[in-house]
Amino acid sequence: MKSRIFFLSLFSVLFFAAIFLPSTAHAEEILQFSTDVRVQESGELDVIEAIFYDFGTESRHGIYRDIPVLYQRDNSNYRLRVTVVDVTDEDGEEYEFSTSTEDGVLSIKIGDPDVLITGSHYYVIYYRVARAVNFFDDHDEVYWNVTGNGWQVPIRSVTASVHLPAASLYSGAKLTCFTGFLGLETQSCDVETAPDFLSYRTQENLLAGEGLTIVAGWEKGFVTRPTAWQNFKYFIADNILATFPLFLPFLCFAVMFRLWWKRGRDPKGRTTIIPEYDPPHGMDPMEVGTLYDFKIDKKDISALIIYLAVRGYVKIRFIPKKSKILGKDDYELIQLKRGTDLLKPHEQELMESLFGSGKTILLSKLKNVFYKKVQTLEKHVYDQLVKDGYFPVDPKHIRAVYTGVGAFIFVLGFFGFAFVFTLALALVICGIIIVIFGIFMPSRTKKGVLAQEHILGFKRYLMVAEKDRITFHNAPEKRPELFEKFLPFAMALGVEQAWAQQFEGIYKQQPDWYDGQGNMFSAVIFANSLNSFSHDMNGAMAAPSSAGSGGSGLGGGGFSGGGFGGGGGGSW
């Protein structure tokens, strides 16, 4: 009975020991880890690691050495440039090796995949590192994680040496070291300043996951510090995914500028503007005003009504308010003839929108109603100008496309602020750029440019003051009928007051197509009356309102695993 109890107890101890105690059958360990760091005047480090690795009884192909190359500094990526020069044994015979980088870690895989080895083997890894020197106001520094804290096997002994670029630097050098698990400030290590190098050595074995980190600081001026331009290029390269959005607005601007340059500019015209004494042949005031500024203004519609009145299709009657205190002045539009066969589509559309099947309409009755017809009227005008060859495509459509695309990108960026700020900001700016360029994207054809130059010359004639009239040779004689003929065009171009000033004292009787009030009449008074009509017409057209690693290792800021370098390794 006692023997059975003893046997069961022994079995239990062995069973739990097998589960909970680490296995030592493989007996892998690093017998010696030695590193030599040579600081070059260029700021590069030449690093040689000599690793004496014991595989024990385990059969392996070789070892792998992981070296972190990507760090976080000032909330941005900071990448070391590491170049593996060669990997040899203690006699200088080269090992077969391969390198790969994943998730910011350079992995050096050493060994022959077709050969298995056991026992102790010597690996000498030589690599060059750029950007691993820290530059401070009062000193330069190497803060280097010699072994890394990622080895899964113990390390019996670690030594390290640092060679500075000038012999005079050793006497004033500052050095320290840290050991233990990642983040600890334990200093179970010795440092020594020799005549031609700085020496570091661990005082005890390192467990799996422990490491040695060294720090060396020296006088400034012996190592070349990267220029601001070099640092900027490094920053862009290291943070390409994060910084690309910052360049997106510039890209948007470049693309939109190229589109405007190719499609948004007018062809070259005569370039010289000469006085013209008539509007372009076959164009009405609404077409002239639209070709002039690419858009249909409310004054263009008012000018077209006056144009139809001058031609005998409409009569305008002024209706004063009934009381000096209450009410408001109004206008009555009276249809005199239809003449649909003689009118252009947009002129017919305007007549139909105003009168429908009736003969008269009060301007006040059009309010909150007429605006619904304006879009159809605009389409007819743009279609007519495209058909006649003044525009290659509908300018309003062009603006709408770019505005829609820009608004979509703007909204996309606006809702992206909670996720990626730089990308969201870039999209918002891009959206604004596209919308702004969209305003200037409509263009004229060659015929349209020549007509535009004609309009500019005609506008100069309409605006000319009496004292400057001598410069306009062959200008037509100022007659009352001439004033009426060109008045709608002057309204469309916004120079009706200047045009009326030229006929002050000549145009003394109101036209048949306008029924105003008062005994006093002049061209200027009449123009002011039409301005009032145009203002009220604008009101009728308006829609109703709706409701890392960058810190110093000296001065109490260091710890095991800090600085550059580090990583770890193992066997494979």
UniProtKB/TrEMBL annotation:
Region forming the signal peptide: 1-27
Superkingdom to which the source organism belongs: Bacteria
Domain (DUF2207) ranges: 29-218
Chain segments annotated as transmembrane: 240-261, 400-417
Pfam families listed in its UniProt record: DUF2207, DUF2207_C
UniProt entry tagged with the keyword Transmembrane: yes
Keywords: Membrane, Signal, Transmembrane, Transmembrane helix
Domain (Predicted membrane protein YciQ-like C-terminal): residue spans on this chain: 276-503
Protein name: DUF2207 domain-containing protein
Organism expressing this protein natively: Candidatus Kerfeldbacteria bacterium RIFCSPHIGHO2_12_FULL_48_17
